[in-house]
Write a structure and sequence with these properties.
Number of helices: 3
Helix content: 10-25%
Largest sheet: 8 strands, antiparallel
Number of strands: 11
Radius of gyration: 15 Å
Shape: globular
């Protein structure tokens, strides 16, 4: 499963793309076939589970917010406010090498979590650019959905915010 998280940073920047795409805020993506989609004003969540086996994968894309700090500072803030409010992590995230493309710098990290006996891995990808940040959180308790998650991450493209100058904050 570690190779999935190594690939996540590159994927979040939209290096691969197939099938019909959807757009949420600044994020264009291709949802994995057969995954349930739930959208609110501030998030879009894609989930797949097998209740018989007790396995699941849930991915939440969060609407962009101001991101005036460095990409690492934005990641750290998102880890505290998004990840740690969702699950109890076992320690600091294992960080991946940041990747920059199209004016966005993506920081990603993952850690094991345990919530009332529900154990798994949480991945956070925070992309910073154009004075904005976009966050994606993935929770899973299995590697069964690894290919679908990898394909989803690879389908993501981040747009330049409307009305923004060429100013990039990295």
């Amino acid at each position: 499963m570690k190779k999935l998280f190594l690939f996540a940073t590159l994927s979040m920047l939209g290096l691969l793309s197939v099938a019909q795409q959807a757009t949420f805020d600044l994020v264009t993506y291709t949802a994995p076939k057969g995954w349930k989609k739930q959208e609110t004003a501030t998030t879009v969540q894609l989930t797949k589970e097998d209740p018989a086996k007790g396995t699941y994968c849930a991915v939440t894309v969060v609407k962009s917010i101001p991101g005036n700090a460095s990409s690492k500072e934005n990641f750290d803030a998102a880890w505290e406010t998004l990840v740690k409010e969702m699950v109890t992590v076992s320690g600091a995230p294992e960080m991946q090498t940041p990747v920059t493309e199209n004016g966005w710098e993506a920081q990603s990290g993952y850690a094991a979590f345990d919530n009332d006996g529900n154990k798994g891995i949480v991945l956070l990808v925070t992309s910073t650019g154009y004075e904005r940040m976009v966050n994606l959180v993935a929770l899973t308790n299995t590697d069964v959905y690894e290919k679908e998650l990898t394909d989803f991450l690879g389908s993501i493209n981040l747009a330049k915010p409307a009305g923004n100058t060429n100013k990039v904050n990295l």
